[in-house]
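Bug report

Summary: structure tokens for FAD/FMN-containing dehydrogenase differ between web form and batch submission.
Environment: batch mode, default settings.
Steps: 1) Submit the sequence below via batch. 2) Compare with the web form result.

Sequence submitted:
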Amino acid sequence: MIAPRLLAELHAMFSADRVATDADSLTRYGLDWTRYYQPAPSAVVFPQTVDEVVAVVQWANREQVALVPSGGRTGLSGGAVARQGEVVVSFDCMKTISDFDPVARTVRCQAGVITETLQQFAAEQGLYYPVDFASRGSSQIGGNIATNAGGIKVVRYGMTREWVAGLTVVTGKGEVLRLNNGLAKNNTGYDLRHLFVGSEGTLGFIVDATLKLARQPAELGVMVLAVPQLTDIMKLFHAFRERIDLNAFEFFSEKAMRHVLARGHVKRPFEGEADYYVLLEFEKLAADTEEVALAVFEACAEQGWLVDGVLSQSEQQAKDLWRLREDISESITPYKPYKNDIAVTVSRVPAFVERLDAILSREYPDFEVLWYGHIGDGNLHINILKPDALELDDFRRACEQVNKHVFSLVGEFCGSMSAEHGVGLLKRDYLDVTRSVEEIALMRAIKVVFDPNGVMNPGKLL
């Protein structure tokens, strides 16, 4: 923990209500959704301006105090955990939306703007912010950018990176960089903006962003399909994508859906059961789009790739169908799941899944393993649920033993050991699965340039 003198200096920099040292605040702001670490920050500060962020970063450099950024703390890799007396810098008080440009279709957001708030703002302007995920109601824009968040509509709209037209960042030195200024074309050398997207707060703090917006989608159709075999899922993806433009293509297992259904807030989509399900979403851009989708459904059923299905008939039904997929993570949180978030190129998914399924069946005979994910972009979420009788540390060690087999396969397929949740603390020691020795050395060198004293989220990513 930092010395009383340093706490006094923080209180001198910020008003009394914007420095927290009580136990509840330290626990709340010192931990993200990862449950394998005990939070132990020294204090939490709540800047309101860029100048205040600069001041606390410069102070941290002078006093050699580590800083940890805090957004919505919805991360799953320990990237926002403060466990060694760090000062947490929360962006809860920086949530202004400004500079909307209807011609350029851009808007400026401070780091603390909630994702859903931006989505609602865009809708009020007749536009759309398409980066979307279950944590939209609590995740913050700064954190989304720092982790290059993906979510449920990457098939159509891509990752957060695609929507960042400009950034204002405070580097680890306390310098302010205004990057790209919202320009659509700017061919003037290194685009430093993209270094900060996905950097997990290790180079500096994102304080505001100019984000691109899209046109509002037309009426949406949502289908849930019952699939007998995991290997049939990519056949369905290919068949539907050949005929219609997909916004999303998600999958989940029967085991995963049962945890959602057990809460009683949504119903099973149809009477029958299957081992796996696909949820797909498309825009009804033409009068016959729905008919085309149903024709593809019939053709796939004849091939035996699906055994049942439902197509939404109302906006409410579409939302209810989405909840079957989006509510999985929240439904299994009480089980303290160990999560693997991996990806391979879409064309290699069937072969990868077959090999991976064999590994998980062999290595986790006594654990409940849930499959779900954004399989249309090659992203699989594997969640292993902790048995009640097993201590958390013992459970984690058991899962990490199996990681060796899982990540070896990921490396063989030239995949990613963290497709969208980031690296943080939890996956830091596996970075070499996806990054070469040379890449990691360059990443370390880049960090030294922007954060020479190592005060920015130390121990995360690298």
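Above is the batch result. After comparison, the two runs are identical; trailing whitespace caused the diff. The chain has four domains: 4-91, 97-215, 220-329, 336-421. The radius of gyration is 23 Å.
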